[in-house]
Amino acid sequence: MEVFPYFGGILHPVVSFIVSLSIIVFVHEYGHYIVGKWSGIKADVFSVGMGPVILSRVDKNGTTWQIAAIPFGGFVKFKGDASISSSHADFRSKALDENDLRTTLHGAPLWARTATVAAGPIFNFIFSIAIFFILFVSVGQVREPLTVSKINPLPFVNQLEQGDEIISISGYKIGSASSLSEILEYIEYVDPNSITYEIRRDGETYFVVGPPIDLPRVSGLVPLSAAVEANLNAGDVILEINGEPINKFDELKEAVEKSSGSSIDLTVWRDAKIFQTTIIPKREDIPQPEGGFITKWRIGIVGSIYPFDLLTEPIPILQAVRLSVFQTYSIISSSINGLYHIVAGNISTCNLSGPVEIAEISSHMAKEGIQSFIQTLALFSAAIGFMNLLPIPVLDGGHLVFYAYEAIFKKPPNQKALGVLMTTGLALVLFFMMFAIFNDYYC
Question: What pLDDT score was predicted for residue 340?
């Protein structure tokens, strides 16, 4: 079910982006706020959005909670800050007595300042882990024995029914969801449009005819991909490539790789109708764990070995926690690896996404449904947490570098040098944003 069904055209990506950004910014800034509060630092203002205030209220602790007119960003202004960047102390804070000075960001102990600043990105990571945990627990893992939960429309004979337990396919016993991939190359088809399934139905064993496995069927689409531009939908089955019939998803992958970016003509089945479309694969530079990168051509189609959906069951709590942490770690690791290769010039700077592309991704995932949308929130939250930890002045990572300097040399950085670094950092961030926007339009 679409998340924002009442917004169409250009409004959909705008609304999707604003909602996504507002949620992630709120989590980030709330991390700063709550850890600051726990550390004895008072917040004067907590703002979602920038610019003129639309709505505000003051809580019992004297903090003003507000929603501002420009829905891009947000901030926490702590007591004693000269500005919302928390880079300088208000000169008037020097006149405060010792107890009041302790409640300001700049007058708090080094440990309290460090914890407060680090809390923003850390809360982004925790938010990402929490979302993945909820998804893993709610979506679950494939139940064994493998059981059909949904029959997908296909242009093939299908005698399978919902609730059928899969015992074997084409004579090969199926013990788990992963075991099928191990026997794919051994399965032979008498008829390329069907295959024999051994099933258990209502306690009885039957042999029925069903659709082939590893079909060139679209089970999902990657946002902003060539498949989206070619107007393909989930559920589509690709019957021919450049006029040649195909029966396997691997045949589709092979044809895309061999194209080297040249256009490909597709014959597609959708809802009992057949149509033609042309797709142009996109280049993707993929960093490798051992270093370097490989170039692949992609069209952005997610496939599935099974031509039907399988019944799932809940994942054990501890396993879900481990998977959630690993998933968030993988996002951070990929971000570090990708950024390194972009800076080193190993891969194209077009791999860097800006706000326009992020808005389009949010819109695409919102149209896919609530599960896809909140999964995107987890991805963006982890990525924004990582970006904020970069050692650039004005970002949280820059502040942490200054605190590390203070811890080592037992004194804060020179204020004039700090001012220059903050200005340089701001210019660098603005340049980075403009460059990313340029990429969105010209890559």
Answer: 79
Per-residue model confidence (pLDDT) at position 288: 63
Cross-strand bridge partners of residue 165: 147, 200
- Is the pLDDT reported for residue 200 higher than 80? yes
Q: Are 242 and 277 in contact (CB under 8 A)?
A: no
Q: Is the Cβ–Cβ distance between 217 and 235 less than 8 Å? A: yes
Burial of 6 (0-12, 13-18, 19+ CB in 10 A): exposed
Q: What is the dihedral of CA 35, 392, 395, 28, to 10 degrees?
A: -70
Looking at the predicted structure, is the pLDDT value of residue 186 above 90?
A: no
Residue 93, pLDDT above cutoff 60: yes
Query: Is the Cβ–Cβ distance between 29 and 14 less than 8 Å?
Result: no
Buried b (16+ CB within 10 A) or exposed e, 89-110: beeebeebeeeebebbbbbbee
- Tens of pLDDT, residues 241-255: 999 999 889 889 999
Do the beta carbons of residue 31 and residue 123 sit within 8 Å? yes
The whole-angstrom separation of Cα 212 and Cα 157 is: 10
pTM of this prediction? 0.81
Distance CA 241, CA 259 (A): 11
